[in-house]
Amino acid sequence: xxxxxxxxxxxxxxxxxxxxxxxxxxxxxxxxxxxxxxxxxxxxxxxxxxxxxxxxxxxxxxxxxxxxxxxxxxxxxxxxxxxxxxxxxxxxxxxxxxxxxxxxxxxxxxxxxxxxxxxxxxxxxxxxxxxx
Length: 132
Prior knowledge:
Blueprint: E1 4-10, H1 14-27, E2 30-36, H2 39-51, E3 59-62, H3 71-78, E4 88-93, H4 98-106, E5 113-115, H5 120-131
Parallel strand pairs: 1-2, 1-3, 3-4, 4-5
């Protein structure tokens, strides 16, 4: 089975970052993992990758509650970049708020809304969906 080239995790909590990264590694379905601690850092680096015509991640796992730029600010700015390839964004948050879920629907991410902690099974399901 062909592996996913790049997954990006945007997460400021070291425990959730460790768990998510470990599960991605255990899945055996991903070549490379990018990690950013807040939305601004992720946006700046991903935009630079896009402008350099380098390969963007196929999947972004995005926390909502982060310092500097939260996940919503990242989405607002990232969706303005004229990217032609498919980047699958999954919100991965501790928020089970209906307001946040409704906000996610504005970005067509209501089916890509996952509440932490993520499980190995959920990671494998996401990665398998993207591969097919």
